[in-house]
Amino acid sequence: MVVHMRHTRAHTANRRSHHALKEARFATCKDCGSKHLMHRVCGQCGKYRGRIVVDVLKKTAKKVAKKKTTKSEEAKRELPEAKVQTK
Question: Which residue ranges make up each domain of the chain?
Fold first, then answer.
């Protein structure tokens, strides 16, 4: 039979000391000057460490096109269709 010893409160607290949440660290983009998370691509210009990684203009164009199509589809749904009554 094995004896199980309980941990003291201090030992438990020392183990849990690394569980605290840390605040987000922001860096300033060298090209556009906006704030972004460290070690992440800049959301404004799409660059990481001076190189273009993401084509931001292409992504925004896709989003705008998608919004336009959804708005036109919603407008079609809202318009009531003319019902023809036959007697």
Answer: 23-71
